[in-house]
DNA sequence: GGAATGACAAATATTGAAATCTGTCATCGG
DNA sequence: CCGATGACAGATTTCAATATTTGTCATTCC
């Protein structure tokens, strides 16, 4: 039906996301994706060497959106301390919203995450770099101390310390009552630890 | 063969642990446990109402050992700051050792953990209480600040912030190079955050 | 010429019948 | 009398036959 438009990697990725959303990671097949696009599955293989590569590309796209959403905090103006808490709160809110709003989609996402740890590692690098940018501003302004092992190591420590509030592995906890308090307590502990 | 000894809950738990170790969580059956003890499976049901209850008891025993191992840091003498880092390091070392030394056993353990979240929650309470005891000593001695929301909330924040280094969900990461540095960076950040 | 197709082999997943396991309980034996 | 037994029904798991999917490639079509 959509055979009029040319088949691009982008269109295949959109269809794949839709198929994953509808059937889940276990049942979504390349044939399903091709059917959704009204083409033969052979055509999909022209754009993606394997099913794994296709799923990896979807995962990458998905994660990339988070980085984009958080960029304002990393680059935006304002005091570094507020930008850091804003960044952490926004990340947690994003994740919680996704996990709470559509648990099945979150489960699908978690499977993809598990399949593509290399992609995830690269994504974590991006996020840590965003934290590091905020920390660097804070150090420059004298509100944060440069950590014992450099800003990047400290940024990673901030990311690791808040792991429970952004790692999909903990998504099941995010609906628990009191999780907000736990989050605030950790953020408070971490920001105290950063103070100059 | 061991039919001479009386059948106790304790002996059943030992046999169950052995069976779990040998066959893994998916294959370990109540019949296997009974066979290992040389009794009928009906006898096992005299001591544990269900297979789930049996597994829960094993999980509880397993976790209890950790609490015992860490008690010296919680109660022992010495400066609170050193006891805290010692406690955190010992916990991480314990977990890493188990995960690295016998990955299959760790996987088994992780399945049991997942099945028995109520038991795990109680166990976490115990661990947080141990941290809280150290923090309370530190506050008394003037080396730690009482957190904004009380010692227990702060203790939980310490536990949460170091989650990546004790939660079995992250066991796969514990063999990565640089994990030691990551751990030290988080502990450093946290202890800074606690200082009076 | 270059993108799209669909037949095909090998790998993977599904299915349903057979086997095993869980949990109960009437009976046994010390 | 009281713990242990094993036969049993219903639930779950296993296994092997069957069907689907993945990935390739010679051929088709624009």
UniProtKB/TrEMBL annotation, chains A, B:
It comes from the Bacteria. The keyword Transcription regulation applies. Transmembrane segments: none annotated. InterPro entries: DNA-bd_HTH_TetR-type_CS (IPR023772), Homeodomain-like_sf (IPR009057), HTH-type_TetR-like_transc_reg (IPR050109), HTH_TetR (IPR001647), TetR_C_27 (IPR041478). Residues 6-66 form the HTH tetR-type domain. Residues 29-48 bind DNA. Keywords: DNA-binding, Transcription, Transcription regulation. One of its GO terms (molecular function) is transcription cis-regulatory region binding. This is TetR family transcriptional regulator.
């Amino acid at each position: 039906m959509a055979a009029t438009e040319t088949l691009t990697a982008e269109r295949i990725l959109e269809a794949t996301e839709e198929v994953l959303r509808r059937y889940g990671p276990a049942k979504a097949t390349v044939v399903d994706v091709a059917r959704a696009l009204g083409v033969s599955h052979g055509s999909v293989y022209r754009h993606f060497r394997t099913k794994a590569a296709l799923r990896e590309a979807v995962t990458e796209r998905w994660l990339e959106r988070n980085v984009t959403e958080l960029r304002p905090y990393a680059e935006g103006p304002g005091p570094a301390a507020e930008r850091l808490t804003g960044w952490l709160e926004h990340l947690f809110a994003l994740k919680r919203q996704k996990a709470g709003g559509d648990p099945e989609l979150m489960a699908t996402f978690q499977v993809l995450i598990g399949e593509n740890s290399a992609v995830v590692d690269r994504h974590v690098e991006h996020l840590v770099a965003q934290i590091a940018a905020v920390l660097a501003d804070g150090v420059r302004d004298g509100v944060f101390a440069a950590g014992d092992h450099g800003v990047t190591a400290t940024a990673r420590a901030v990311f690791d310390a808040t792991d429970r509030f952004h790692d999909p592995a903990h998504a099941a906890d995010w609906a628990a009552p009191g999780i907000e308090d736990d989050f605030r307590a950790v953020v408070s502990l971490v920001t105290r630890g950063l103070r100059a």
